[in-house]
Amino acid sequence: MAKINQNVVILGTGGTIAGTAASSADHTGYTAAQIGVEQLMSAIAGLPAALQGRGLITEQVAQIDSKDMDFATMARLATRCAHWLSREEVSAVVVTHGTDTLEETAWFLQCVLPAQLLAAKPVVLTCAMRPATSSEADGPRNVCDAVRVALSAQARGVLAVCAGDVHSALQVQKVHSHALNAFSSGDAGPIAQVVGESVVFNALQEAIYKENLAAGQWNIAGAAIKYIVSTVHWPRVELLLNHSQASGAVVHALLADSAQPVRGLVVAGTGNGSLSVDLEHALVDAQSHGVRVLRASRCAWGGVSATVNDRLPGTTLSAVKARVQMVLELLHDTELSPAPEN
Ligand code: ASP
């Protein structure tokens, strides 16, 4: 009989961590998502030690370069995470993922996985900047670190592990195109660090994170797994950028595209979410025609704080996470909301 909490589940989705190159000296000219998760794990010498006697279950959920991630795949992943987290014999779920859109998937999981599951067990995403065939591959250490984090007593919620740093889904952002330590939590700093075989949490950050988690702070009410898994038509939300001489032309072109109507627009504004006069005008007009509009900041950190002059709402989330959240909110508000009772 399976023992309680005696297994770690590793779900593979592809990425550079599963990538191959023609030569072991080639760290950059590779093809992502080539090696299956089972084979990948069997080649990691340090994994049995990191598992500390736990069993390992692997499952291939997808095999893609994460630049091609989509909501259907994220929904499938969320379903598998929920399935495994709810099993008594499973301690934690680790997800191998490409670095490019890892923060979007992490935020999606944080928003849709039931708060009570995440308050009890963690989902830890990990990745690599070099392919599995590299003589200096970083994937094996990241996987071992992720497993140690997943098994640490404090780990809860959706976390991301790369180069020894542990980030919360809320904070994590890819900030470097080729450094091995490609992720940052900005001003907050990592929520924890892996030091040798230990995982050292930042007590203050951990406390704030768990408080939000326990309150179901990030759950999109109603955008539950059982609904999203059957979603075929995801609301179309596009991402725009303010810049010098930005015009409203892109907004007008998007609104004129009737093939799949735009339901929402997230704009990465300059500084505190500011927009050129023309772009703001076009977005206010879009909002008045029923398109949901939200201003994020194109600055890496700080987000948008409200001011008395705002004509459009702002968010402290990064633009890409704000887009994920808006898709889920639109899905909930318009497609999933229960029909009124008579
Ligand atoms: N393009 C790859 C991906 O995101 C990059 C990586 O994993 O580092 O799948």
- Low-pLDDT runs: none
Mean pLDDT: 93
| Total domains | 2
What order do the strands of the largest sheet run in, or round the barrel if closed? 4-1-5-6-7-8-11-12
> Structural class of the helices, strands and pairings?
alpha/beta
Q: What is the H level of CATH, i.e. the homologous superfamily of the largest domain?
A: L-asparaginase, N-terminal domain
Strand content: 15-25%
CATH topology tier name of the largest domain: Rossmann fold
- Tell me the name of the CATH class of the largest domain: Alpha Beta
From the spread of the alpha carbons, the general shape counts as: globular
Number of strands: 15
Named CATH architecture of the largest domain: 3-Layer(aba) Sandwich
Distance between the termini: 49 Å
Elements, N to C (H/E):
EEEHHEHEHHEHEEEEEEHHEHEHEH
Main β-sheet, in a few words?
A: 8 strands, mixed
Write up what this structure looks like:
The protein is α/β, with parallel strands linked by helices and about 350 residues long. It folds into two domains: about 210 residues, Rossmann fold (3-Layer(aba) Sandwich), CATH 3.40.50.1170; about 100 residues, Rossmann fold, CATH 3.40.50.40. About 30% of the residues lie in helices and about 20% in strands. It contains eleven helices and 15 strands. Strands 4-1-5-6-7-8-11-12 form an eight-stranded mixed beta sheet, with helices on both faces. Strands 13-14-15 form a three-stranded parallel beta sheet, with helices on both faces. Helix 9 links the parallel strand 13 and strand 14. Helix 4 packs parallel to helix 11 and helix 9 packs parallel to helix 10. The radius of gyration is 21 Å and the shape is globular. The model has no long low-confidence stretch (mean pLDDT about 95). The site of aspartic acid has 11 residues, from loops.
